Amino acid sequence: MISDPELVQLLKEGDEGSFEYIFNLYFEKLCLFAESITRNHDAAEEIVENLFLQLWLKCHINPVEKSIKSYLYQSTYNNCLKYVSRQRKGMIRIGETETDEQIPELQNSEYPVANLILKEIES
To answer: Rounded to 10 degrees, what is the CA torsion of 108, 109, 112, 116?
Structure first.
């Protein structure tokens, strides 16, 4: 088993095998995680695809500070928050106040993580 620092070094050197290994290991899991937040399959997949594209183009992981897994999940979470925030801003019309009735599709017991994020955004 190869260590995170070694994997990161290989990524930075452009090693396709290490990228493929990380992609195969995390892509589907990250998509499910992102979908639980965004509640949009296509958006979730696009968020994760963009993350992997950035990982391939310019690897910004510092393996001393974070594991690859931690980096990928934190980046996915942050990008999902940005997506949800943009979606919410698009739903608010200038001069109106938003009520819970205006966003029923965003509140659903099937997505507890998204509900927490919505509360975080509201506060």
So the answer is: 60
The H or E element that residue 59 is part of is none
Distance CA 49, CA 74 (A): 15
Output the CA angle 86-103-96, nearest 5 degrees.
75
Q: Dihedral sign, CA of 53, 76, 66, 19?
A: negative
User: How far out from the chain centre does Cα 25 lie?
Assistant: 16
Q: What are the helix (H) ranges across the chain?
A: 4-12, 16-38, 41-57, 68-91, 112-122
pTM for the complete prediction? 0.70
**Which residue type does 81 have?**
L
User: What separation in angstroms does the CA of 14 have from each of 9, 76, 85, 87?
Assistant: 9, 22, 34, 35
Dihedral in degrees, nearest 10, Cα atoms 68, 71, 73, 78? -160
Backbone φ and ψ of 96, nearest 5°: -105, 150
pLDDT tens column, 62-106 = 766 778 999 999 999 999 999 998 888 876 444 444 444 444 444
